[in-house]
Amino acid sequence: MDQHVTRERASLFRYLGFSIEGTSIVGHYQLDALEFSERVDFEGIESMERVGVRGLAQLWYTLAGLSYYKAGAARTVDFADLVLGERSRRFIEACYLDGLGEFSFRNSLDLADVRYVGGREPGWVSAVGAHLNSERVLIPFGGGIDSVVSVEVLNPSLERALFIVSPASGRFAPLEATAAATGLPILRATRTLDPKITSRDEQFFQGHVPVSAMYTLLACVAAAASGRGGVVMSNEHSASVDNLIWHGRGINHQWSKSYAAEVALGAAVGESMGQALRVASFLRDRSELWVAKVFSELPSYHGVFRSCNRAFRQIATERSSGWCGECDKCLFIHLMLAPFLPRAALREIFHGEPLANPALRAQLATLVGVGVTHKPFECVGDPDECATALTYVAKLDEWRDVSHLGELAALVLAAPPLSAQLEPHGESRVPAHWLR
Question: Which residues fall within 8 angstroms of residue 82, CB to CB, at 6 or more apart?
């Protein structure tokens, strides 16, 4: 936090209401005296009139409010006239507390004191009469190795389509290239944030929001509106691992990708759609290393995929055209693929060698859990997975000239064998018909 700027918490954040306009959702919010509006425009959907869609749109609108709430971290949240069932309200309040966990930590704000008022219980079951085809599924697609693997391993008898969310500043070129490589049809949503929230006003608090959950709910809206009965997420087992403990609570950068969030979101979706719409992560019981191994066997994607966050910045002029080779995400993906692809092949993919860069030694040490208190606030695997990959790669002849790999591997106290990391572990909510 900038010590030269004094930020005061707001008093009240209020939901002013939302509307469905054709195939768009428009939402309005108020933070003390300041008002915000956001619009999401869908492509590939003919109508939003299907049973249950409005309830899903409201759930998304409620969660999307966090993008504006965070500007002032108000002490009271007023749901006003929103119709929220018990499970939906529980999910939203968890998003405020756990989904804003990293935001709270970085801004030294304990949001456990937030008071929730307003909102009312539904007087009917909106899911009555909802009929969706369980054999038609929508796959939220981010252009990285995880969503690619879901596409390729999912039961091919299902009718599959991709779902992509883009900012108003324009589509992400690497994501589009990777999506094109799948050959699947695409449904889209363009999210136009209120320009006041993207102005980087120094009086606003800044930080991470549970954007993955927001995108999941947009996918649910698109799926239900187009008659699809499944939303296939691509979140691995490690997404549930906390970065650290603060004020007695786990702080997890990837909370909205975690199993706990998946269960809570699924329960909330059920209040609008019953069992007609299934939402689950296809990779939930898999490790990042398992995903990397499968991806290594899909060469048609190796030249187009991108996981570097600098390629996905909201402001188009700030986007990187390739792998930056310096960030934690570039280093992590390089590390995950190194046990399964030749060094020369990796060099061609990344146009460099993050693992061999001595300037990234400290970042690599953090990834594998050597001499640090917590893993980085980034979408990376847990330290055990990283340590397994490092100890394996450090023994390969083609990497022996990179001295810091062996040095760090010697400092790893214990790492599960690679074979163990390639086995399923943990819980999964994947429907049987999604499997081959």
Answer: 15, 58, 62, 118, 119, 120
Q: Is pLDDT at 324 greater than 80 in this prediction?
A: yes
CA angle 266, 271, 275 (to 5 degrees): 65
- 95 sits in the region (left: phi over 0; alpha: psi -120 to 50; else beta) called alpha
Does residue 320 carry a pLDDT above 70?
Answer: no
Amino acid 314: pLDDT: 64
pTM score above 0.85: yes
Residue whose structure tokens are 């009086």: 203
- What does the pLDDT read at residue 361? 95
Average pLDDT over residues 328-354: 96
Instruction: Report yes or no: 140 and 215 within 8 Å, Cβ to Cβ.
Output: yes
Contact (Cβ atoms closer than 8 angstroms) between residue 430 and residue 282? yes
